[in-house]
Design brief:
The chain is α+β, with helices and mostly antiparallel strands and about 500 residues long. The chain is built from 11 helices and 23 strands.
């Protein structure tokens, strides 16, 4: 029997009926147009979020948030303006539009907003949900976490452990002066389990299903259940404990296989961010950095080996970077960014793409109604190749299998990086052997991807949903990355303390 969680759903639905929302948005864009805007769009966004976390020797941490508001963008005199208001007062839509008009009108000048008009996009999109996570009772969620943490309590070597589940539901409306009108309902769920073991001055961590906030997918409570947190809990504890006495992974140069959890972060940091066109054009230099990639390199710049093909695909089902329309009203589509090692497109907005004479790759999103949309990764994935993990190990011969990030560092151009991993396994003659600790690897982005000899097949691929911070004021974009294990030759190895 499903337990209902009334506290988590008490505020949901305050946006009201579709007609009311559309009237708010029409009032806003009509005001902007009447005051000289050549383009305007409005977004009404309602978000409900719940996070339930437990830690050893601490009371459960339950956080619930609800927000509802409107954000308005305008182009006036060739300049952008943006305004937003929480929806409550009757004049909120007009006040948001007036703020956007004032911002654009008071701009000191500079680069005018490039803008290529598009035909109107009208449609709806809804995440497929089998069990609404907000209908699952808080007691049930806390019971799951307590059972997972109990496994950690029973180990004398575990000094700390964390288990958590999260859920987020968004209703997003979009209306523009071009005639676009869209309604989307996006739902996501996730879970995490982390264990720290300690002995004789040594501390080691092991995580599941990933170290960076666990894993989150587009779907309902069924996604959390699919993670099998309780089933995996004993293995996580055992591996954290075993790392305490595991031998040190040596430095030097080695051939390696990198598992999908670690490769997901590698893609995020050295592909996703590096291929954002706003970075490439210098628009994010003051807040998030730039990129070593140049806009003139399309079709010629070699990013990696022929084994490396990267796609951005927000149409993928069940992943955190999926949606029907971005926050500029564009319909989601799949785009190849790197084709057999060569850069062929960027993550871009309508404006940034127009500045280099291209079409947008539908990558503009905002973390709620109160923020101007930014260029964020969507679902950016390394295309699978062929072969099982066992075949990849046999091809590797001698080397190491690395997985799951423990630390990461990359420069502001996304060129030089150093990542520490939670685990390493020695590989001898194609056989994955003893567990090793404190491994790290580093490199230069195009050299690293140029050393990828093979990507395993689709049956070995996994997807991980991540949060990504960017902009000023800082926004969180919710993205996903997929990969199968990769075989990389001649990787620089180090020691992560």
């Amino acid at each position: 029997m499903t337990e209902v969680n009334p506290e988590a759903t008490a505020d949901w639905g305050r946006a009201g009926d579709e007609g009311t929302v559309r009237r708010w948005m029409s009032d806003a864009v009509d005001f902007a147009r009447a005051h000289g805007a050549t383009y305007a769009d409005a977004r009404v966004v309602e978000i409900e979020e719940e996070r339930v976390y437990g830690e050893l020797k601490r009371d459960p941490d339950v956080r619930r948030e609800h927000t509802l508001g409107i954000g308005v963008r305008v182009i006036l005199g060739g300049m952008w303006g943006f305004g937003s208001r929480a929806l409550g007062a009757a004049d909120a839509p007009i006040a948001a539009a007036a703020g956007a008009v004032r911002m654009a009108a008071s701009s000191p000048g500079g680069l005018a907003a490039a803008w290529a008009p598009l035909p109107p996009e009208i449609g709806t999109y809804h995440t497929e949900v089998h069990q609404d996570p907000f209908s699952v009772g808080l007691d049930r969620k806390q019971r799951l976490l307590d059972e997972v943490l109990q496994v950690a309590r029973e180990s004398p070597l575990v000094v700390s452990a964390l288990a958590g589940v999260n859920a987020k539901r968004q209703r997003r409306y979009f209306l523009s002066t071009e005639g676009s009108w869209q309604i989307q309902t996006l739902v996501e769920c996730g879970g995490v389990y982390q264990v720290w073991a300690a002995a004789d001055g040594e501390v080691q961590r092991r995580s599941y299903p990933n170290s960076f906030h666990g894993n989150t997918g587009a779907g309902g409570w069924e996604f959390v259940e699919s993670l099998g947190l309780l089933h995996e809990a004993p293995r996580v504890v055992d591996e954290a404990s075993a790392l305490l006495t595991a031998p040190q992974c040596p430095g030097g140069t080695a051939d390696v296989i990198i598992g999908p959890a670690m490769t997901a972060l590698q893609i995020h940091e050295s592909c996703g961010h590096a291929l954002e066109l706003d970075r490439i054009l210098g628009d994010e230099a003051g807040f998030a950095g730039t990129s070593f990639v140049e806009a003139t390199g399309l079709g010629t710049f070699r990013y990696g080996s022929p084994a490396v093909s990267v796609v951005a695909d927000p149409t993928a089902v069940g992943v955190r970077g999926s949606f029907g329309f971005d926050d500029e009203g564009q319909a989601a589509k799949q785009t190849t960014l790197v084709d057999h090692g060569v850069v062929v497109d960027f993550l871009s907005s309508r404006e940034s793409a127009a500045r280099i004479g291209r079409r947008s790759t539908v990558s503009m999103r905002a973390d709620g109604w109160q923020y101007m949309p930014l260029c964020f990764s969507t679902h950016v994935a390394l295309q699978p190749g062929q072969g099982s993990l066992q075949e990849l190990l046999a091809k590797l011969g001698d080397g190491y299998y690395l997985d799951m990030d423990r630390s990461w560092s990359i420069d502001e151009q996304r060129l030089n990086f150093q990542f520490g991993t939670e685990v390493a396994y020695e590989v001898k003659r194609g056989v994955k052997g003893k567990l090793m600790k404190n491994a790290s690897y580093g490199g230069v982005t195009p050299q690293f991807w140029g050393s990828v000899e093979q990507v395993a097949g689709a049956e070995e691929a996994r997807v991980f949903g991540l949060p990504c911070g960017k902009g000023e004021p800082k926004q969180w974009g919710f993205v996903s990355h997929g990969s199968a294990p990769i075989l990389v030759r001649g990787v620089r190895m180090g020691v992560a303390g």
